[in-house]
Structure formats: structure tokens, C-alpha cells
Amino acid sequence: MLFSSIIFNINAQDAQRIELTNPSFEDFNRHSQPPRGWINCGMDDESPPDVQPGAFQVSKTAQDGFTYLGMVTRDNDTWERVGQRLSTPLIGGQCYQFSIHLTYSEDYFSLSRTTGKNEFFVKPVLLRIWGGNKYCDTRDLLGESELVKNPNWKEYQFKLKPKGDYKYIVLEAFYKTPTMFTYNGNLLVDNASDIVPVGNCDEEEWDEEIMVKTEEPENVEPETPPVTNVAPPKKEDEKIPEPEEVIKPSINPDPPTKSNKIIEELSIDKVKEGQSIRIEKLDFLADDYTILENMHPVLDEIYSFLKENDNVIIEIGGHTNRRPSVQYCDWLSQNRAWSVRKYLLLKGIDKERISYKGYGKSQPIDTTNTPQGEKRNQRVEIKILSLGG
């Protein structure tokens, strides 16, 4: 027993500050390839993590430097992780302090392996930290965060106490635990600290000279679409649009004039709070939510209205006819509302000024017994939430 105690004390004294390779995850922006210094530790036949921003509609600014790591969980029970060999091994029984900045993207649009459709990957997930003795070895779970629900970057702190000596570390995006069902979510990771040895993991206070403890992340619910895992069955001849194909904004639109205006009611001296206005000449293809080029004029008209009246807050609402199932209608109307909102965001409108919702077939405005009535029911509307007065 005395011999073991002596060995432990020697090991603890030998513990060193460990610097990670590329802790800010800097690299060229690209999808399906982890940042330099990190290797993909994900599942076989699945795409690797990404260097963000820029892929899958992710546009959040980095917390440190220019780029950061993006990882997802999927609805087919697969998830992403990265790893690297440490410059100095973790010592078993030694306590370490470690911090890393985490958030999620409110917009993340990618292909679901289960539905075969592009879906929202916006449910909150958590970060797990593993130690091991080879690349991608998840031998010892060293730390696990709470669900990352904060829409802005927050510093998460961990006390790591490895059970053995480990030369490798793995960062992993994972579902809420315990996991009742798998789902599509995303996690953004940036600005990791050194791994710093400290005296005692049971001590309540942290060494402020090594690392300043920050407040816990706010318990903010993410901007989650009302329906996340519902999609129509895939048709064999159906082309699944890539994320970058769904939204292609126009460039430098001409402001609308009185003679070419499409939505006559869309004028600051005509609109009222609570008013809903149908977006004319916004005709999606059947079973689709892609923004086509012929939709640009009316969407640019909405953009010009919002740009000129920067206190106005709106909701984009999607509606369908009554023929498909409730789940299908909810899915399609939500995706169409999302596409319109995303178009306006990409043009430069602040995301805080535009919300979106899919109402499905719950709010018809005309008869459901004629083709003409059903065509009117299938629509996208602007609802004026606030004029900022």
C-alpha cells in the first residue's frame, strides 16, 4: 500500500499542463473534413465533422479566430466525434481543469439518413470528453456537459479525473442522456483551453490564476421548428436538393416601384400589427420548398420593406391544402416558411426580426371543396408582429 502511494504521488507531481494541437479549430472552411490536428472518429459510412461556418446554412461567427468545429448527431443512431494524440499523457488519478466554448446553430439543414430528405438538425446535444490509448479510443468518459441550449458562445468548464494514463483525447457530440430516441442535432465547438493539472477534483473553488470560472450557460430553449422528425416518404425518382440548392438569393435587387409592386398591402402606412398578408407569386413546386428564381422579385420586395422599416418584426407562416396527411402538411408548410425566412436572412435581415411557423392545413381561408379554394388555402403569409412603435 505504501509503495502504491509513493508511485501515485510521483505521478501527480509529474503532471504537466497539456497543450492541444489547434485548440481554436482553425482551418479552411469546408464540410466533411475535420480541422487540422484533429482526426475523424465518427462512424463508418458517415461523413466526418466540418470546419464551420459556411456549410449546411451555418453562419455563426467564431468565438476565437475565424473557424470552429461543427459536429452533429443523427436520427439513424450515429454521431460525430474528433480526436488527437496529446503532447503529454493524462496521468491516472490526477485532477485536471479544462474549458471549451460551445453553442449550437439555430439554422442547420442537412440530409437525414432516415427520411432521405433534407431536415433541420437543431435539437440540443451535449459534449462528451473521452480518454484512451489509441486514436478514437473511448475507454474512459472524462467529462460530459449539460445540453447545449445557449444560442451564443459560452465557456463550459470541466474537471477531468482520468482512471488511467491516457495518450489520446476524443471530443464527441451526443444525445441527451439517457437516450430515449435518436435525433438530428448540432454542436459547435471553439477555443479549447490547455488541460491544466490541479490539486484536488473535490475542491469547490477553482484556481483563478489558471482559469477564471464563468457563469453556467443560460437555460435558453433553442429555436426549434415545431416538427423536426416528420417528412414525407421518399419517392424513387425524387431529386433530394443539396442545402446550397434550396436557397439562392438574388444579387442587388432593384427596389420595387409603384408600377411593379407585387404586394400592394406591404407598405408602412397600410400595415397594422396582427395583420396577415399573403405573399403573392410565390409558387413552390409540388412537394417542394426550394426557392426558385422566379420567386426572387416578391421576396426582394419583402426584403426592401424590412430594410426600409428596421423596427418591423414579422412571422413567416406556411399553410397547405387539406389533401395530404396532417404530418405531411405540417412538414411541408414548415419547410416553406423556413425557406422564405432563410432567404431574407441571407439578404441581410436580422434573424431576431423574423420568426417562422408551419401551420399545415389548420387555418384554411377558403372552401376546401373546390380546386380554386384549395389553391388559396395553400399559401405563405407575412404576419406583422410589431411595428416597433
3D architecture notes:
It is a single chain. The chain has 389 residues and is of the alpha+beta class. It folds into two domains: 2-198, Jelly Rolls; 248-386, 60s Ribosomal Protein L30, Chain: A. 15% of the residues lie in helices and 25% in strands. It contains five helices and 17 strands. The chain has helices at residues 2-14, 243-246, 296-308, 326-347, 371-377, and strands at 39-40, 50-52, 68-73, 81-90, 95-103, 109-111, 118-120, 126-132, 140-144, 154-160, 166-174, 185-190, 196-198, 276-278, 313-319, 354-358, 379-386. Helix 3 (296-308) crosses helix 4.
Radius of gyration equals 25 Å
SS summary, helix count:
5
CATH structural fold name of the largest domain: Jelly Rolls
Mean pLDDT: 81
Q: Give helix and strand order, one letter per element, not per position.
A: HEEEEEEEEEEEEEHEHEHEHE
Level-1 CATH class name of the largest domain: Mainly Beta
Structural class: alpha+beta
Full CATH superfamily name of the largest domain: Galactose-binding domain-like
- What CATH architecture of the largest domain do you see? Sandwich
